[in-house]
Amino acid sequence: MHLFALGLLAQLAAPARLAPPVLAFPEPGLDDSAAYQGYETRFFRDAAANTVQIYLDRRQGRVVHLWADADNESIGFTARAAGDSAVPLRWDGDGATPARAGRSRTLEYRLVAEAPHVHLGWFLLGSMRVERDFQYERRHRAPFSSPPFILPEAERLIAALERLPAAARRRHLALLRAPDVRTLRARLRPTVTTRARGAEWVARVVQPSLDGRDTIALELRADPRRVIATRAGDSLSLQARSGERVPFTVRIATTAAPLTPLAREEIFTPEFLAFLAAADAAGRAGGAPDSAAIRARWLERQVRGVELLSSREKLMAGLPTYATYFGRDMLVTALMMRDIWRDEMSEFVVASALRKLSPTGQVSHEEALGGQAVREAAAEYATLVDGHLRAAGAGDRAAADSLLARAARVLRDHRRTRENYHMIDDELQFAILTARWIADPDVPAARKRAFLRDSSDGGGTRLVRLLRELALVAQMTAAYAGDQTATKLIPFAPREPDRDAAPGAPARWASTSWRDSGAG
Questions:
Q1: In contact, 313 and 352? CB cutoff 8 Å
Q2: CA nearest 81: which of 120, 112, 111?
Q3: What predicted TM-score, i.e. pTM, was given to this entire model?
Q4: Which of 70, 101, 152, 393 could disulfide-pair with 10, CB 3.0 to 4.6 Å?
């Protein structure tokens, strides 16, 4: 069904309700608004209780929506005046309206542009990692008339497909549910359409996934009685018929899978929740000092922040830049919070790490999922096709066939979550957390045994995977355990020599620790 129709069904399925933000920054009394320098952000829950962060960057005119779901999605656009200067936007109202119908989840809210004429462009819908890189490269500051932004990895994939013989190309396109290269290429950038009907003008920006199975969408709506709305290429123009402001409505939509959020009662111990309630009561008591009220507000905000990052599947690293699994961050957080977290939280963390364990026992440092997984798969596919063509040109048919078969497998599994195992500190943190949970006398032995015998995640029982990880830690630490001198500490792998380095320059080492040190 068309995504716009799904959005309408979502409104009809249940009465619309305006939900206040779970958190908002900066918050008067708690934050120095000057330190934010025009940056404002709000956090909402969608209809599946997944976190949606929206931030307005007045300095750059950039609006970004982070959907912290199972695909770590983002939806961004830029607002500018006629002279390409940023147009400041502000919230129009205090809440947002979440809705859901079938696989589609939507969130709707209102903005106001503080200018009589605003241009909207640089629509980027996909992975938060792509949005981050897009801004790192300052592409959001380029003129709207610049060439469209397409991931170089996707361009390499298309080029590799076009170099294949026709029969192989058709087979590989079928793996992506595309009849031809032209169809696939069209999926690499969002489509912008507009329509006007009655008292509503709607612009829809839709980004399909590489295989066309999912979509992310952005809708911008304005009242033609108040706003003159037009489209020029991939950008939009909204002009107030009178006054100095342009109001418009924003709706975001996705068909990605949601996560399973945890409530505070599932995260924190009853003792800590009682402490939180007592602090709140003290802050509300008549005649209470301002410091008590501020302390209560600060504690509540911290707890809500933890809730926004917590799900049964994983604890996420910070929003909005990461918003996904980071092994070391998750493990350090769990170690620091054990005194006020329920025992089950340690189990969630241990299960999450074991689920992503490598065949040799390494703990995943970071996952690439959703659009980032597709991006990495595209780069790998192009490399394999290049190798296939070189081997075929050299007459090595066996190598050429093997590389082509591997390339096909990458396309077939292009949505598979990819794990990064290059850090080494998370192996040690994981062993410590697991040991503390196993040694905890408050956790019944029967529950520990049931947890470790569980094999529902695949890959054998958790006990087998845990022993694999502990064997790796024992191997890593054996030299230092036998001779506790600095030269026996766990080393980093050496970097490739720098061709431009001066003679006699000190050796450099691959950074594989939390501190990202290159000292070795």
A1: yes
A2: 120
A3: 0.89
A4: 101
